[in-house]
TrEMBL record:
Positions of the DNA-binding region: 30-49
Native species: Planobispora longispora
Ranges where the HTH tetR-type domain occurs: 7-67
Membrane-traversing stretches: none
InterPro entries named among the record's database cross-references: Homeodomain-like_sf, HTH-type_TetR-like_transc_reg, HTH_TetR, Tet_transcr_reg_TetR-rel_C_sf, TetR_C_31
Entry GO MF terms: DNA-binding transcription factor activity; transcription cis-regulatory region binding
Entry keyword Phosphoprotein: no
Keywords: DNA-binding
Protein name: HTH tetR-type domain-containing protein
Length: 205
């Protein structure tokens, strides 16, 4: 059997771990289960990733990259106004949640676990920071396309939208048959546009 280097094994193990975690949950992703997913010896997993947290960290980093690429790959449509533009963008983004709930469920599991782990918390923090930047870029691009001068900092607008969208994801995971989510998404978009354009009254500066 041809030798496979550790460098070649790492992406294979990460994808195998994601497959096991997505299907059976993070708790079920033992090194034995991950090795079985690939059809390799359990010792190989330990050799490539000395500690389980190293593999978890690699999985979180891979999921961060996947989500960032997915979000960046969504076309920002040029619509007549800012709300219409971000609305079209939000609906495209929401489609990924509807079609890939297992991915978002896994991210939620890892996120909560990471917050409780001193070794994983920096990775979770970096995950959040990177996604903040992705959303900021999307809203900056939408404002440029529509010639909109944002009344609030783009970081604040993006965080406002992301917070609402993230909450809606959790609601969808808990209640996948609730068709009101689409209406809630439009309300989040409207509130975000109002904040961005200075129409949402705020008591803080």
């Amino acid at each position: 059997m041809a030798h496979v280097s550790a460098a070649e094994r790492r992406p294979q193990l990460i994808r195998a771990a994601i497959a096991v975690m997505s299907r059976d949950g993070v708790a079920a992703a033992s090194t034995r289960a991950i090795a079985a997913e690939l059809g390799i010896a359990q010792a190989t997993v330990h050799y490539v990733y000395g500690a389980k947290d190293e593999l978890y960290r690699a999985v979180i980093e891979q999921l961060t990259t996947d989500i960032a690429e997915q979000v960046r790959g969504i076309d920002i449509p040029t619509e007549p106004d800012f709300q219409a533009t971000i609305g079209a963008y939000a609906r495209q983004l929401w489609r990924t949640v509807v079609e890939q709930p297992h991915v978002h469920r896994l991210i939620t599991e890892l996120f909560v676990m990471g917050l409780r782990s001193p070794s994983l918390r920096p990775t979770v923090t970096d995950y959040q920071r990177q996604l903040d930047i992705v959303f900021e870029d999307a809203f900056r691009e939408a404002a440029a396309y529509t010639g909109t001068t944002l009344a609030r900092p783009v970081e604040e607008v993006a965080r406002f939208f992301f917070a609402g969208f993230d909450g809606l994801i959790l609601h969808r995971l808990a209640r996948p048959d609730d068709m009101a989510d689409e209406r809630s998404l439009e309300q989040i978009v409207a509130a975000t546009a109002a904040l961005a354009e200075g129409h949402l009254p705020l008591s803080v500066v």
